[in-house]
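4.2 Preliminary Data

To establish feasibility before requesting continued support, the project team ran the inverse folding procedure on a target of 378 residues. The structure was first converted into the token representation described in Section 3, and no sequence information of any kind was made available to the design step. The complete token record follows.
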């Protein structure tokens, strides 16, 4: 009978995991983690048996890592190590557990060192560190995979920061990959080369086209001359300085509204200090990221997109026109407050309100007022 041993119980931390569920995309990270542990186990075996030139037959075939359950407390996958029984010619005289447990401990030690900005090469080789280009790639800002969750003082957190640190710790690493979401205009597409170019503010990115996205990309190329852009999601290649250099793969493509909020906010990233008569403040990129995400999450698609303008004090103004009503929302960054003003130019009736854009209730109020004035039914 196969022997099953409780091997690893990492804890996924973040809002997406609060319901004790694991998104399918995260399973790719766990699969890559299994590959890494296998390779590190083989490395430990060869280090301990210097007279051996290769791994014994069956070292990997008889061992598997499986998710056998999910514990409560965020999402905690129970990963078990299963060792098959060996008989006859496949008799395996060594205990694989020793090397797989050493591999697990080496990975945990490396992640713990990365969290403290300490050297990691005493725990893993360059070829092992390359696996972190895939492990943890699905984790978003504020999320982490605690490999040693039982130790609350040092849980060995794999997150966006430590993953990048581990990947670049390999001397041979020229950069790293990460999930990206971009808005831009398709300026070139080649059916023969299966590639396209996407112009984003200040940069042109080249990427491959898979067959399922070819029609959308070619349509976007035609509409790009009219300034209509696309939203793309995929895997981006970054250099060691964190600069995006290309798209490695394309996962989702969709046409954008000509007034798309995110695309307009992307243009504000080109602003520099003194952009307005020598005194304008450029909005911080992190705040533009936040505002883009806030509109995506809270602004109803049934409502028309606003006209957006940067303000000299580093904020953003959103404007709408509905019959006699002139509506503005003066957004304060980084305070994340907004000042609503609606004026009826025929009757001089107006109303004002201060909003906290961190509160869902204020976004609901905003949508309701806009729907009323613009004549939109949800």
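Position-by-position output of the design step:
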């Amino acid at each position: 009978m196969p022997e099953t041993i409780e091997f690893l119980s990492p804890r996924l931390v973040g809002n997406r995991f609060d319901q004790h569920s694991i998104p399918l995309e995260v399973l790719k990270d766990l699969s890559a983690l299994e590959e890494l542990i296998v390779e590190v186990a083989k490395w430990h075996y060869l280090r301990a048996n210097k007279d051996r030139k290769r791994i014994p037959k069956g070292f990997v075939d008889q061992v598997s890592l499986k998710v056998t359950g999910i514990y409560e407390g965020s999402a905690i996958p129970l990963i078990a190590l299963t060792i098959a029984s060996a008989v006859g010619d496949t008799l395996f005289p060594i205990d694989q557990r020793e090397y797989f447990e050493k591999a697990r401990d080496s990975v945990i030690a490396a992640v713990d060192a990365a969290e403290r900005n300490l050297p990691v090469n005493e725990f893993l080789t360059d070829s092992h560190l390359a696996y972190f280009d895939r492990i943890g790639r699905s984790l978003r800002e504020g999320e982490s995979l605690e490999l040693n969750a039982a130790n609350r003082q040092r849980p060995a957190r794999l997150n966006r920061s430590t993953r990048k640190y581990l990947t670049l710790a390999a001397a041979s690493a020229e950069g790293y990959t990460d999930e990206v979401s971009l808005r831009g205009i398709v300026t070139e597409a080649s059916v023969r080369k299966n590639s396209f170019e996407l112009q984003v503010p200040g940069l042109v990115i080249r990427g491959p086209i898979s067959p399922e996205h070819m029609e959308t990309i070619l349509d976007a190329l035609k509409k790009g001359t009219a300034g209509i852009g696309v939203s793309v999601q995929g895997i981006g290649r970054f250099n060691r300085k964190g600069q995006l250099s290309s798209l490695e793969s394309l996962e989702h493509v969709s046409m954008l509204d000509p007034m798309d909020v995110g695309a307009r906010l992307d243009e504000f990233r080109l602003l520099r200090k003194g952009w307005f008569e020598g005194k304008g403040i450029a909005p911080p990129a992190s705040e533009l990221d936040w505002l883009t995400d806030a509109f995506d999450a809270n602004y109803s698609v049934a409502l028309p997109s606003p006209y957006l303008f940067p303000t000299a004090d580093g904020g953003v103004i959103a404007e709408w026109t509905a019959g006699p009503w002139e509506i503005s929302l003066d957004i304060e960054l980084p305070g994340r407050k907004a000042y609503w003003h609606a004026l009826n130019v025929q009757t001089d009736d107006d109303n004002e309100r201060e909003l906290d854009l961190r509160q869902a209730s204020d976004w609901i109020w905003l949508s309701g007022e806009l729907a009323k004035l613009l004549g939109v039914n949800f």
